[in-house]
Specification:
The structure holds two protein chains of two kinds.
Chain A: H1 2-10, H2 12-27, H3 34-59, H4 67-84, H5 89-114, H6 118-137, H7 147-154, E1 156-157, E2 159-163, H8 164-182, H9 184-194, H10 196-201, H11 206-232, H12 243-253, H13 265-284, H14 289-325
Antiparallel strand pairs in A: 1-2
Helix pairs in contact in A: 1-2, 2-13, 3-8, 3-9, 3-11, 3-12, 3-13, 4-5, 4-6, 4-11, 5-6, 5-11, 7-11, 8-9, 12-13, 12-14, 13-14
Chain B: E1 3-14, E2 17-28, E3 32-36, H1 43-50, E4 58-63, E5 66-68, H2 73-79, E6 81-84, H3 96-100, H4 115-128, H5 144-156, E7 162-166, H6 174-189, E8 193-197, H7 201-207, E9 210-215, E10 218-224, H8 230-238, E11 256-265, E12 269-276, E13 280-284, H9 291-298, E14 306-311, E15 314-315, H10 321-327, E16 329-332, H11 336-340, H12 347-350, E17 360-361, E18 364-365, H13 367-381, H14 397-410, E19 415-419, H15 427-442, E20 446-450, H16 454-460, E21 463-468, E22 471-477, H17 483-490
Parallel strand pairs in B: 3-8, 3-9, 6-7, 7-8, 13-20, 13-21, 16-19, 19-20
Antiparallel strand pairs in B: 1-2, 1-4, 4-5, 9-10, 11-12, 11-14, 14-15, 17-18, 21-22
The chains are: A mainly alpha, B alpha/beta.
């Protein structure tokens, strides 16, 4: 019995996801069809890919609020390159990803230069990205992307609803889970999140790690931007705004602590899917985007409270055990 | 003489530990009573009880004739108990006057204090203490010694009858200690009683009237300082002769493994030294003498301004702690919880963390090897735990320290820097750490041990270097070891 409870606690996000799926299957007969499930994955693929990077940042004890507009600006940049210049498609995609990696590194650079936590730096950067994105697009939506580009987000394989984006997401998830569980890099990320000064004294090059984490987060954000732009078939400065809240909440629902140092990639995927399903459910129930903001914010506060509560509970338990040992 | 404070039959237990066992003692009006004992003897528990921070299981406290079974911090303050803690509790950005009256209402109306009156009263208190500093000065502009005076002023501001001072000399320069003594004597003349806690036994003989000794949560004895010798005091404190405390080891000192040439940094810091194979080199000095700074430079964590560190004849690139680990220098830091261990992670996570890169192939960790390291060091160091999946924060201080050592050893470091190796570790576990250090040097490793505990320095070291204001003020070989010599050198008094 306690094993079941323990399993549920460790995989809380998946258990919640299952419950939500079961509830939804009662409200809609089409819910549990392969096509629908694949569609859900496809809709969330770009967010989940982005989440891999943000989860990494959060596990290492940071927080990044710039992903939304970072994705927007990268999407806009890619669309501009494809429509306004003669840059070939593959090169445009590579440049987009590289720029996003640069943005990720820029976050770390400012964090180091200003000696500020990443969350503050990223809020500033986010506002700058937003402004730049509106300036370079003249506040207009850029459409007319070549059909060949739409393959990334819309092209399918094996099944009419299984997109390349979904497959990229799956590959990314497997690779990142492996990296976090089996490599020393993964251990070092958790070491940073657990205790940065102990990590530094243990001979871990904290600065280099932070750059690496920033770049990886930028890489995934860039891929997310490509998929999003390709799927929508157009790009605008506000396309991905607010994604950062979905990701942050999803990662928290996935069991990563705001203090860092804990969590699993797989649970973060479940966390983001929960957020996606809830948004979808509300849409179907006729609640518009603004109601969804209210719900998302409330869920975010709820999981943060739950996280704080867990931290306190564990600290108290540790104290009791220690007194009993002494 | 009238008794101003009486502690009667006070017992305090925590699950599994008796922190205070039926303790009674008293303080007379206008006397300076020294309270001494080893770490874990119960001194801090008794202070906390007198100041109302914790409630005893049984027993009473009488302040000025009034008996209390239960004190709260507010009640204790009201009754005339003032405390100056070892660490300073001031708001750096506020003025002296504002700090003195922090939390107290001084005249004025409901919302605003009467600033003029506050300043006037603060000035009066400082003059009473015989100190001339402008009370408008921001506390962050003061020296540590001056801050401590503000702490004293803050403690005595409210009709203080008993002032408790917890290791007041530990955090200020030697030269300022005399000034602090003068202030304490002045308080005594005004009829304030002082409970003075210190590890420096000489101070007691200079300053105090009587001395009360605690050991392992029990009251041992109270004597007039004029009627007792230092040797007796030590015997009362540790309950046996000093020599038994430190296990003997086979000493085999070899070639130098670490050479430091003209290492400079931060201000006057300038060090030349050598550490040999199989040696425990003690590093003594006051807080702020640069001991921890030296340790951090040696392990690469703090970059020196100039100078060279040679490890086994090879110049070490001292740019980051990673370089130190690479060269085989491991630090067991003073602040175990903040810098030594990952409290929230398990033992099996902590021990191999420094070795991760070494036991990885193309980035992928060989977890079999990691588990082997863990079980090897849990066994050889005798880390007491039901399972290696235990989170480190659930371990006792001594076992946490062993985890830190295991982590450093697993990374093949054989030059070890122990910064305050037994701080916050209870008496029994201390001896285990000493035994561990002995076996490390017997196996040919070298240890640089920074310690503020005199007995530990004298008992464990093969040689002692004394630091004073960033420079080595003296080197003592085993035959020259004496507490007096170390203290003289540490305080910069030159006497040949």
């Amino acid at each position: 019995m306690s094993k079941v409870v323990d399993f549920c606690r460790r995989n809380l996000a998946w258990v919640l996801l299952m419950i939500i799926c079961i509830v939804f299957s009662f409200t809609s007969q089409n819910f549990f069809t392969l096509t629908n499930l694949l569609n859900i994955l496809n809709q969330n693929a770009y967010i989940i890919i982005c989440t891999y990077g943000i989860a990494l940042i959060m596990m290492s004890g940071g927080l990044d609020m710039a992903v939304g507009y970072q994705m927007s600006i990268c999407g806009v940049l890619c669309a501009l390159m494809l429509t306004q210049t003669g840059i070939p498609l593959v090169l445009a995609a590579v440049i987009t990803i590289l720029v996003s990696v640069g943005f990720g590194a820029l976050g770390t650079l400012l964090e180091q230069l200003l000696q500020l936590p990443r969350i503050f730096v990223s809020i500033g950067l986010s506002t700058v990205y937003q402004g730049v994105a509106y300036v370079i697009t003249n506040s207009k939506t850029i459409s007319g992307l070549p059909d060949s580009f739409k393959v990334i987000g819309q092209g399918t394989i094996f099944h009419p609803s299984l997109t390349y984006a979904t497959i990229l997401m799956a590959i990314g998830g497997i690779v990142m889970s492996f990296v976090m569980d089996r490599t020393y890099f993964g251990r070092y990320v958790f070491a940073l999140g657990g205790n940065e000064s102990a990590a530094r004294l243990a001979g871990i090059n904290v600065t280099r790690m932070k750059y690496a984490i920033g770049c990886i987060a930028g890489f995934f954000c860039g891929i997310g931007a490509l998929i999003l732009t390709s799927r929508v078939g157009a790009a605008a400065a506000g396309t991905a705004a607010g994604t950062e809240i979905t990701i942050l909440t999803g990662v928290l629902v996935g069991g990563v602590s705001v203090r860092g140092g804990d969590g699993k990639i797989a649970n973060c995927i479940a966390g983001v899917l929960i957020m996606g399903l809830l948004a979808n459910g509300m849409q179907l129930a006729g609640l518009n985007t603004y109601y969804q903001y209210i719900a998302k914010g409330a869920i975010m506060l709820l999981v943060m409270w739950f996280d704080a509560f867990q931290i306190k509970r564990r600290a108290i338990a540790a104290n009791k055990r220690k007194e009993a040992n002494a | 003489m009238a008794k101003v404070l009486e502690v009667k039959n006070v017992t305090k237990t925590y699950p599994g530990v008796v922190a205070l066992d039926n303790v009674s003692f008293d303080v007379e009006k206008g006397e300076i009573l020294a309270l001494i004992g080893e770490n874990g003897a119960g001194k801090s528990t008794v202070i906390k009880i007198i100041s109302g921070a914790i409630t005893p299981d049984s027993g009473t406290i009488a302040i000025d004739g009034k008996t209390y079974e239960k004190l709260t911090p507010a009640l204790a303050k009201e009754a005339g108990i003032g405390v100056v803690y070892q660490e300073l509790n001031l708001v750096p950005s506020l003025s002296i006057a504002e700090n003195i009256f922090l939390g107290d209402k001084v005249g004025g109306n409901r919302f605003l204090p009467d600033i003029k009156e506050m300043k006037a009263r603060a000035r009066e208190i400082m003059e009473d203490l015989g100190v001339r500093i402008d009370v408008n000065t921001q506390v962050q502009m003061l020296s540590t010694a001056q801050m401590q005076i503000v702490e004293i002023a803050k403690a005595v501001v409210k009709n203080c009858k008993v002032l408790i001072m917890d290791e007041p000399s530990a955090s200020i320069p030697m030269a300022e200690v005399g000034n602090m003594f003068r202030i304490v004597r002045r308080l005594k003349e005004k009829g304030v009683s002082v409970i003075y806690i210190s590890h420096r036994l000489e101070e007691l003989f200079e300053l105090c009237d009587r001395v009360t000794v605690f050991r392992d949560g029990q009251y041992v004895i109270t004597r007039k300082v004029s009627e007792i010798t230092k040797k007796d005091l030590i015997r009362y404190m540790i309950g046996r002769e000093l020599t038994e405390k430190f296990p003997a080891r086979k000493i085999q000192i070899g070639e130098p493994v670490l050479k430091v040439r003209d290492l400079t940094g931060n201000g006057d810091f300038h060090i030349n030294m050598e550490l040999h194979r199989g040696e425990i080199l003690g590093l003594a000095g006051l807080v702020g003498a640069g001991r921890t700074e030296l340790a951090k430079m040696l392990c690469g964590d703090v970059k020196p301004e100039s100078g060279e560190i040679f490890v086994r004849g090879k110049l070490m690139k001292a740019a980051s702690a990673a370089d130190g680990v690479e060269a085989g220098i491991g630090l067991v830091p003073e602040d175990r919880k903040q810098e030594g261990v990952f409290l929230e992670y398990t033992i099996e996570w902590n021990i191999p963390i420094m070795s991760m890169k070494r036991i990885s192939h193309m980035g992928v960790v060989n977890f079999k090897e990691a588990d082997r390291l863990t079980s090897h060091y849990v066994e050889t160091l005798g880390i007491k735990t039901p399972t290696v999946k235990q989170e480190v924060r659930n371990l006792s201080g001594g076992n946490q320290q062993k985890v830190v050592v295991a982590k450093v050893l697993a990374a093949d470091n054989d030059i070890l820097i122990f910064d305050e190796p037994t701080r916050g570790i209870d008496v029994g576990a201390k001896q285990e750490i000493y035994k561990l250090m002995n076996s490390l040097v017997e196996e040919g490793r070298s240890i640089l041990m920074i310690s503020s505990e005199m007995e530990e320095l004298l008992g464990m070291s093969d040689r002692i270097l004394v630091l004073h204001e960033g420079k080595i003020s003296g080197e003592l070989s085993k035959e020259e070891f004496s507490q007096d010599r170390v203290l003289e050198l540490a305080s910069g008094m030159v006497e040949e």
